[in-house]
Amino acid sequence: MESTIQLEKEQQRKKKHPPGLYLLFFTEMWERFSYYGLRGLLTLYLTTALVSGGLGFSPAWALSIYGFYTGACYFTPMIGGYLTDRFLGRRKAITIGGITMAIGNLTLFALQNQLGLYLGLALIIIGNGFFKPNISTLVGELYEENDPKRDSAFTIFYMGINVGSFLAPLVCGFLSENLFKTTVDGVVHYGFRYGFLAASIGMIIGQILFTTLSNRFLGNIGKKPTRDLQTAAGQPSVGDTPLTKKEKQRTAVIVILTCFVVFFWAGFEQAGSSLTLYTNKFVDRSVFGWEVPTSWFQSVNPLFIILLAPVISALWAKLATRKQGDLKIPTKMGLGMILLGIGYIILVIATLKTGSDEHNITEKANLLFIVFTYLFHTLGELFLSPVGLSMVSALAPVKLASLLMGVWLASSGIANILGGQLASFTTSLGYAEVFTVIGAVAIVLGCVLLLISKKLVKWMD
């Protein structure tokens, strides 16, 4: 009887996620709070006049700095991932990255000048390179390769990212533009530095949690670099052995899916450019006589993530209990591409009503068009992005795990560049034409991914 009870307890334990997942959830939540808190203030800080607490840069120069900063944050994880795999170990790299990013934000708080700007951003970019690929890889290392809870775990982890990204603009924006805004002799002065301070405090909180609780909840996971682990196991060190045929096939799957993901994010990231401009000019944003600020629509996506991530996580867990098992990762990602395309079809319907000429708007679109667009984009994101993180952590050869996670994350940097080019076409071609192209290509690519999914799954197994 007692052995039966123990067996039942063990089975129940195996159904639950390890407590280390929730430590990584909150660590990442606070890091994303720090990142999005700064990102939401950066262009405002750069373009606001010196007397008003900014740096007084021209919009063109400010956007160039912003573009370089966000792009670099996606590319440095490749370098950080390589150094981690060979020399540092994941937990040490996360600590180095977290402390460096906190110092970067403190630099922005302390030095309100160009030196403080460039030094602070450089520190954040470097720190991000060490932190970002390793926190995601650690999540994967909590589970066995074929554990059915893996995709569900990454969906939960992804919700932590979006809790941070939802709260950050509200908190840091309130501190900068409301609580610490002052007016002296008719001159408004914004408290941007206090927004940067809040971003730094968020990073410090996350790092304290990780440092104090990692031994308890993670054990020895991520303590040593891959080179040391292989040496201890009596295997050749990292880089001394060539990839096996299966490892090459799995690496090829990661590269192929990364190519699809680039276009997904190029379409998705229109939210911060062409979709924002369309919302500002062509959408009736009034609710009961009050006009919703355009910037508030940036919180719709993370809000949907917070609401829907538990549902999608439960869906994957439920499907995993079926005889045929969960949907395969390429299938989920193909469906995610199609959902993105459906979101753009909704936008195209709106543009047929409003046109694309901001100087000749006969009728504005209902804001529900935008809300439902974000809903389908969010569903697409939940089908694609968290399971993508899960896929990389599961398929990447041990010696390339953090490097390939960095490559996966760097695809977003390429997507931001492509997305900017797509957004610029709205001024010459019009919103309807650009949204139609993005939607159609997303659906076609999604169908292609579904068609080749069996081949990819064969390489993955």
TrEMBL record:
Membrane spanning residue stretches: 36-57, 63-84, 93-111, 117-135, 156-176, 196-218, 251-268, 303-321, 333-352, 367-389, 401-423, 429-452
GO molecular function list: peptide transmembrane transporter activity
Gene Ontology CC entries for this record: plasma membrane
Superkingdom field: Bacteria
Principal location class: membrane
Keyword Transferase included in the entry's annotation: no
UniProt cross-references to Gene3D superfamilies, sorted A to Z: MFS general substrate transporter like domains (1.20.1250.20)
UniProt key word Transmembrane: yes
Record-linked PROSITE patterns: MFS (PS50850), PTR2_2 (PS01023)
Domain Major facilitator superfamily (MFS) profile, chain residue ranges per copy: 20-457
Record membrane topology: Multi-pass membrane protein
Subcellular compartments: Cell membrane; Membrane
UniProt cross-references to InterPro entries, sorted A to Z: Dipep/tripep_permease, MFS_dom, MFS_trans_sf, MFS_Transporters, POT_fam, PTR2_symporter_CS
UniProt entry keywords in alphabetical sequence: Cell membrane, Membrane, Transmembrane, Transmembrane helix, Transport
GO BP annotation list: oligopeptide transport
Similarity comment text for this entry: Belongs to the major facilitator superfamily. Proton-dependent oligopeptide transporter (POT/PTR) (TC 2.A.17) family.
NCBIfam families on file: yjdL_sub1_fam (TIGR00924)
Name of the protein: Amino acid/peptide transporter
